[in-house]
Amino acid sequence: MHPPDPAHLTSPSREGAADRPFEPDELRRYSRHLVLPEVGAKGQRRLRASRVLLIGGGGLGSPAALYLAAAGVGELGIIDFDRVEISNLQRQVLYGSSDVGRPKPEAAVDRLADLNPHVVVRPITEALSSANALDLLRTYDVVLDGSDNFATRYLVNDACVLLGKPDVYGSVYRFEGQVSVFDGRRGPCYRCLYPQPPPPDSVPSCAEGGVLGVLPGLVGTLQAIEAVKLLLPAGEPLIGRLLLVDALETRFRELHLTKSEACVVCGPHATQTTLIDYPAFCGTAPGQDDPNEAITPETLARRAGEPDPPLLVDVRTLEEFEIAHLPNAQWIPGEELADRAAEIASASEVVVYCKSGGRSSRAARLLRELGFTRVRNLTGGIDAWAERIDPTMPRY
Questions:
Q1: Fewer beta carbons below 10 Å: N end or C end of the chain?
Q2: Is the CATH number of domain 6-281 3.40.50.720?
């Protein structure tokens, strides 16, 4: 068992929370915990004195927040600057239809207060960045990363290593998930597993590739279990282990991870002692795309009325194409583009698009490599078109 470092339990209110007798409501509420030898009154008081920070209140943060609040973790911080959308409700079970349009942390406060009024929920609506990460993470015992982009994952990892905090990591895509606990003090960190980010736009987001709605519930709940184990402490956390979840086959596999001697943040000869520009590190910083290789929805809308408008190529899946597509668009899914490029008139100006611009950016590069000289990517994809040009277009 790997007990957490007691030096991390430094909140001014910890002492009282750890020693205060339970109220009658708490005794009834936590009765199933209190009879567990691994928890008991001492462990429940420790949970009550603990703080957990959730990075993201989405598919992973939703179940984690519900179960951590129900478990009696004394304070939950939730960092999220998005608003609830109806497309979230297929998997983000922290919210309901009446919450659509509300800031996620604000809606979370109401739901979690109803679930357990003994828990303090701190909504944080500012975007996490290198400028504020150390200050935001500093007062929490455990950080639970439910983010959906590489820049934030590296930022959270590095901040946790510098502060000596455990980073409970989770990710989902389609029918697969991953869970681990990265702790540079006692094992590998995220950078030991992934020293460098993948090329920009090489990994589709859940919005582009989809995700089975139940899967984040499973992965986020596993993250909550790991957080509780770290706080009690109890059991064997997933330090040095990566749990792989295959929902289609209902199979779990475990990979053993080792600490990298060459890791720049947690290795014995670490060279990075401060936070860096993570969007630039991951190649996703604004302005990194060549403006000559992109076209805005407004410009495309104007060009559509010209005598010789650009040829539109939709590189999404058939299921996405059937939901909505731009008028007169030619459908060639991205994975077939190399084999079917001859179907595109080489003399035409070509505009490729997808849902939000990631897959079509890769498609545009591929077409240029194949000899097409007049290729542009629709900035923001069909989502931006629906938002800014045609609000009647179905969105998903």
A1: N
A2: yes
Determine which one of 206, 263, 266, 282 is catalytic. 206
pTM (2 d.p.) = 0.83
Domain residue spans in the chain? 6-281, 291-388
Its CATH class, for the domain covering 291-388, is alpha beta
- Cα distances from 18 to residues 65, 224, 229, 268, 382, in angstroms, run 21, 21, 17, 36, 52
pLDDT digits (tens, 9 = 90+) for 49-98: 999 999 999 999 999 999 999 999 999 999 999 999 999 999 999 999 99
E-strand spans in the chain?
51-55, 75-79, 120-124, 142-145, 167-173, 176-182, 241-246, 251-256, 294-295, 311-314, 330-331, 350-353, 375-378
Is-catalytic flag, 354?
yes
Q: Judge whether 282 counts as a catalytic residue.
A: no
Q: Which tokens belong to 280?
A: 């630039």
Longest Cα pair distance anywhere in the chain, in angstroms? 79
